[in-house]
């Protein structure tokens, strides 16, 4: 399903890495003895895994809830932390068939954007508020539409 998703190739590759547990999160670096703590750099609450960063972190949940509220898709809100692949495949089935391709692309874009935010916090010491990141995601989704990813249009029309 990852390779069928209409998204920028680097974003699909990123999600392939996510699904195979190959991203260098704090938990992975800690497991390999490269750092002392495995705590999430964003929330500092629990071990930083990709499942936590994309679905379980309070910051990510807030970004997701802002976007899902704009899309009037509150019924697919993230309630508990679970595996990214399982949540994505289960949630997409809850949506009308016409919205699934756009939802897949938007979900990949959100995950990619959260990873870039993590990167900025980890290596640059900068941070954005959840509302700012949600706005940046919406703007990048518009750019993806201009680049030919037209299946996002029905979702963006709801925003």
Summarize the structure.
The chain has 8 helices and no strands. By secondary structure, the protein is an all-alpha fold. Helix 1 crosses helix 6 (97-124) and helix 6 (97-124) crosses helix 7.
Protein model, in words:
The chain has 159 residues and is mostly helical. 61% of the residues lie in helices and 0% in strands. The chain has helices at residues 9-19, 26-31, 50-56, 58-70, 84-92, 97-124, 130-146, 153-158. The longest helix is centred in the C-terminal third of the chain and has 28 residues, at 97-124. The chain is globular. The two termini are 26 Å apart.
Keywords:
about 160 residues; mainly alpha; about 0% strand
The tally of helices reads 8
Instruction: Report the count of strand segments.
Output: 0
Give the overall shape. Answer: globular
- Spans of 5+ residues with little confidence (pLDDT < 50)? none
Main sheet record: none
Write the layout of secondary structure elements.
Layout (H helix, E strand, L loop, with lengths): L8 H11 L6 H6 L18 H7 L1 H13 L13 H9 L4 H28 L5 H17 L6 H6 L1
Helix pairs in contact: 1-6, 3-4, 4-7, 6-7
């Amino acid at each position: 399903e990852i390779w069928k998703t209409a998204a920028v190739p680097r974003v699909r590759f990123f999600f392939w890495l996510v699904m195979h547990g190959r991203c260098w999160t704090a938990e992975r670096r800690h497991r390999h003895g490269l750092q002392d703590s495995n705590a999430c750099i964003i929330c500092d609450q629990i071990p930083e895994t990709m499942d936590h960063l994309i679905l379980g972190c309070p910051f990510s949940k807030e970004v997701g809830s802002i976007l899902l509220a704009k899309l009037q898709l509150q019924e697919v809100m993230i309630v508990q932390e679970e595996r990214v692949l399982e949540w994505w495949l289960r949630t997409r089935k809850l949506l009308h068939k016409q919205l699934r391709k756009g939802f897949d692309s938007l979900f990949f874009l959100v995950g990619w954007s959260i990873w870039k935010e993590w990167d900025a916090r980890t290596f640059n010491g900068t941070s954005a508020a959840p509302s700012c990141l949600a706005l940046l995601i919406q703007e990048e989704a518009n750019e993806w539409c201009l680049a030919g990813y037209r299946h996002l249009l029905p979702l963006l029309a709801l925003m």
